[in-house]
Amino acid sequence: MTSSSVVWDRQLIDRYDLSGPRYTSYPTAPQFHNQFGEADLRQAITRSNAAGRPLSLYFHIPFCSTVCYYCACNKIITANRKRAMPYLERLMEEVARQGALFDRSRPVHQLHWGGGTPTYISDDEKRLLMAATREHFNLLEDDSGEYSIEIHPGDMDVATIGCLRELGFNRLSMGIQDFDPTVQQAVNRFNSVEEVRELVQAGRNEGFHSISMDLIYGLPHQTWNTFERTLASIIDLAPDRLSVFNYAHLPHLFKVQKQIDESALPSAEEKLLMMERITEVLLGAGYVYIGMDHFARPDDELAVAQQQGLLQRNFQGYSTHGGCDLVAFGVSAISAIDNVFAQNHKQIEDYQGAIDAGRLPVVRGFELSADDLLRQEVIKQLICQFELDFVDIECRFDIDFKDYFAAELEQLQPMAADGLVALTASGIRVTLAGRLLIRRICMTFDAYINQSRSEIRYSKII
């Protein structure tokens, strides 16, 4: 893929802007089931050790001092920071228990702390958790891994940036969302431009490789005119990567969203205008469109990986490190090991109870079939590279692509006629107009998408 641009075609967006998965995994989480248990996970780890792939580690730290009304994360809201240590003790026990199952020589290429707000815990608690991780897993000590952490700019001391770098983190992800005071009040999320600027400067002084910022459009009281000011401030701060997410208002699923005044939410028309202008402004500012609401500077590793055909996608989003088995720790965390997904208990009491009982805290999961693995790779190639080579898939999976996916290729014909994709004798290429609708294109290859659609709620594609 050589172009970093997109084409905004409103007619195509109106026609294809359905609800659909974000494909951080395939099959997606609604397919997980509770017939999957600890024995299945242990067997997957045994196969994983035989394969010897590098590892990616994810840690879920669910605590936040205040609640953000838009949030759909698994979180625990408490101002009592003493609640963190009992959880961290169980988390470190899980690290030890899982670490004993993995070949100690396998390098950790990727590490991520998410939440919640990982920086909620004290610097000493951070040191304890990272020390336990180093004890049981083979962390890289040459700063070559992708070791990232999510931070809330309005809820941390700038001195913590130095601690994070000391611990081995080299990438920061900041949840900004919006700088407008009215919007911040409406969603109970506060961080000023000055606070963010101080953290960004500290991160650069400490030698962080990449600074990423998250924004959300579609929040109450947002218009393009208000959000344009936020975007101007963001461009001035010059993050290496940007994620601009569409707010999905699903109060029936996430009770905290009931705090949001629905009458203040921007119209669908305004949201489309916002995303169109956001894309236009960021491309004009020199950012590359990676896909799925993500942008990066042309020299950022994410953009370079895409240009080289090496971009990956996992539960944390786009990634530069592929071929890793993902080992996840903490409440609700999802591992992807060999050919299985395994999710921990979602409730902290159940998670801690499983640890205290001497078990791995897995509660449900999914074992991928040969067909699942094939479709997973097809979707990954399309969503990461915007193109797919039939011969490559045929050689890797021993199939005839046009025969195996005859029905799917037929379903793509209207999209080809509308200019979303180009179908050739050798493959599929997503057009500049189709890139914004990549989720809809990928849904064609999703064998589960039409099962129980009435029971599964997804966000709108745009």
From TrEMBL:
Chain sites annotated for binding S-adenosyl-L-methionine 2: Y70, C71, A72, G116, T117, Q177, R189, D214, A248
Subcellular location, record wording: Cytoplasm
GO cellular component: cytoplasm
Domain Radical SAM core per the UniProt entry, residue ranges: 49-285
The EC number(s) this enzyme carries: 1.3.98.3
Annotated [4Fe-4S] cluster binding sites: C64, C68, C71
Pfam families with a match to the protein in the record: HemN_C (PF06969), Radical_SAM (PF04055)
Highest taxon, organism lineage: Bacteria
Catalytic activity of the protein: coproporphyrinogen III + 2 S-adenosyl-L-methionine = protoporphyrinogen IX + 2 5'-deoxyadenosine + 2 L-methionine + 2 CO2
Keywords attached to this entry: 4Fe-4S, Cytoplasm, Iron, Iron-sulfur, Metal-binding, Oxidoreductase, Porphyrin biosynthesis, S-adenosyl-L-methionine
Residues reported to bind S-adenosyl-L-methionine 1: Y58, G115, E150, I334
Pathway of action: Porphyrin-containing compound metabolism; protoporphyrin-IX biosynthesis; protoporphyrinogen-IX from coproporphyrinogen-III (AdoMet route): step 1/1
Stretches of the chain forming a coiled coil according to its record: none
Comment on bound cofactor: Binds 1 [4Fe-4S] cluster. The cluster is coordinated with 3 cysteines and an exchangeable S-adenosyl-L-methionine.
GO BP: protoporphyrinogen IX biosynthetic process
InterPro entries: Coprogen_oxidase_HemN, Coproporphyrinogen-III_oxidase, Elp3/MiaA/NifB-like_rSAM, HemN_C, rSAM, rSAM_horseshoe, rSAM_sf
Cofactor(s) needed by this chain: [4Fe-4S] cluster
GO molecular function: 4 iron, 4 sulfur cluster binding; coproporphyrinogen dehydrogenase activity; coproporphyrinogen oxidase activity; metal ion binding
Subunit structure comment from the entry: Monomer.
Function: Involved in the heme biosynthesis. Catalyzes the anaerobic oxidative decarboxylation of propionate groups of rings A and B of coproporphyrinogen III to yield the vinyl groups in protoporphyrinogen IX.
Protein family (similarity comment): Belongs to the anaerobic coproporphyrinogen-III oxidase family.
Protein name: Coproporphyrinogen-III oxidase
Name of the gene: hemN
